[in-house]
């Protein structure tokens, strides 16, 4: 029997990789650092507006944006619920580390059959259908530290697929001193102007980190840059 592979990540990309791998005969094991962000809420226009408002509120406070799935949630719909019920789309817990031949997961318990809470999906799961992972109980973390829990399990794997999403990558702006103490970049109400440096505009940061949001943000940033240029030209001529 082939060793399973571990898919790491809590968003829809990870879920769809798991489904595709399983359909191809692989044995994927899902690991997430926190309970999956399942939600039964309908993904309609009002949901989209609420997501954008919540992300904008964080960036206006100078807090770092959350991951995509943490902000949007993952829909409990027919694309996923059958595979949740079958035990396929059940996170086995946090990936604690990798060993030479396996993955140490914090969640399967002392016999490899368990899983931590799945949030709003808990009621859909039949524990009998959640596969017992091959491997053995791990008493220590991969770095040698005492585990301090009986939930650690080391399972043999042959592949790790990192589906951990993306966040704003702005190290090239580090020298500008625009980050707040909370770790994020404080954005103005227009969603594109950096409060600490009004001549700097970010399209794709915070609420604009989406196809629709980035389109609107790009337009706002362009108009703001043109407006700033016009004001400077007017001041120079005065």
Could you please describe the fold and organization of this structure?
By secondary structure, the protein is of the alpha/beta class. It has two domains: 5-40 and 76-162, no CATH class; 168-237, no CATH class. It has five helices and eleven strands; from the N terminus they run βαββααβαβββββββα. The strands form four sheets. The protein has a four-stranded antiparallel sheet with strand order 5-6-8-7, with no helix packed on it. The longest helix has 27 residues, at 211-237. The model has no long low-confidence stretch (mean pLDDT 87).
List the helices and strands and how they pair.
Blueprint: E1 5-8, H1 12-23, E2 28-31, E3 38-39, H2 45-60, H3 68-72, E4 74-75, H4 81-85, E5 94-98, E6 102-106, E7 136-137, E8 152-156, E9 159-162, E10 193-194, E11 197-201, H5 211-237
Parallel strand pairs: 1-2, 1-9, 3-4
Antiparallel strand pairs: 5-6, 6-8, 7-8, 10-11
In which order are the strands of the major sheet placed?
Answer: 5-6-8-7
Counting helices, strands and paired strands, the structural category is alpha/beta
> Structurally, how many domains make up the residues?
2
Uncertain residue ranges: none
Radius of gyration: 22 Å
Estimated helix fraction: 25-40%
Alpha carbon gap, first and last residue: 80 Å
One letter per element, helices H and strands E, the order comes to EHEEHHEHEEEEEEEH
* Major beta-sheet overview: 4 strands, antiparallel
Q: Which descriptor suits the 3D outline?
A: elongated
Look at the structure and give the mean pLDDT.
Answer: 87
């Amino acid at each position: 029997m082939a060793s399973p592979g571990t898919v790491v990540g809590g968003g829809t990309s990870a879920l769809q990789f798991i489904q595709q791998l399983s359909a191809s005969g692989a044995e994927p094991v899902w690991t997430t650092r926190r309970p999956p962000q399942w939600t039964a809420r309908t993904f309609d226009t009002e949901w989209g507006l609420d997501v954008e408002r919540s992300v904008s509120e964080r960036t206006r406070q100078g807090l770092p944006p959350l991951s995509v799935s943490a902000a949007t949630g993952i829909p409990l719909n027919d694309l996923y619920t059958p595979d949740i019920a079958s035990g396929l789309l059940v996170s086995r817990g946090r990936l604690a580390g990798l060993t030479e031949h396996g993955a140490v997961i914090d969640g399967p318990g002392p016999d490899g059959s368990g899983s931590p809470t799945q949030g709003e999906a808990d009621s859909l799961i039949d524990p009998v259908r959640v596969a017992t992972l091959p491997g053995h109980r791990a008493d220590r973390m991969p770095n040698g530290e005492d585990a301090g829990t009986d939930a650690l399990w080391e399972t043999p794997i042959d592949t790790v697929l990192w589906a951990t999403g993306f966040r704003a990558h702005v190290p090239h702006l580090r020298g500008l001193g625009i980050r707040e103490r909370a770790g994020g970049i404080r954005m103005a109400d227009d969603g594109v102007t950096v409060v600490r440096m009004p001549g700097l505009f970010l399209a794709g940061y915070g609420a604009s980190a989406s196809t629709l949001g980035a389109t609107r943000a790009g337009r706002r940033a362009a108009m703001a840059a043109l407006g700033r240029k016009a004001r400077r030209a007017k001041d120079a001529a005065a």
